[in-house]
Amino acid sequence: MLGAVICLFNSCSVSLISATIPPELKTINIQYFENTAPLVINTLSQDFTEALKNRIRTQTNLSIVRGGEADAMMSGAITGYSYAPISVQATNNNTAPIAGASRLTITVSVKFTYKKLSFDESFTKSKDFTGDISSQEQQLIQDINKQLTDDIFNKAFNNW
Description:
The protein is an alpha/beta fold. Helix content is 28%, strand content 36%. The strands form two sheets. Strands 3, 4, 5, 6, 7 and 8 form a six-stranded mixed β-sheet that branches. It has a two-stranded antiparallel sheet with strand order 1-2. Strand 6 (72-89) and strand 7 (98-113) form a beta hairpin. Helix 2 (44-59) crosses helix 3. The two termini are 26 Å apart.
């Protein structure tokens, strides 16, 4: 038992809530993710950037810092925001068919730089909904942001 505890404390990386991070990685600079998508939602950049910071803040012991003194850097942009029908619902009268269900899709391009692991890739997530988007949009964005930040977090901090 004592040997297992000693081995745990002498390991080459520090295991945190849901991530394994090298002990020398202590700080990260998360830059603002600008919305460059053709369809711009005013609060999306701020909401996504804060969701990503919150995910890192609550799931690691990393300090989020500004400037070049950070051990790691994460930057990028929201490159896609769209919604489209995925099924059509027929009507009983002579009017055009209406969307039965739709899908909101968000794509984020992320560049993560750290001396032992770096990547530059896009992450896309979608959520289906029915009805008018305007009454559901903020909740849909929140749900998709959670999925995106999970994927980005796992790519950056669970590949050691």
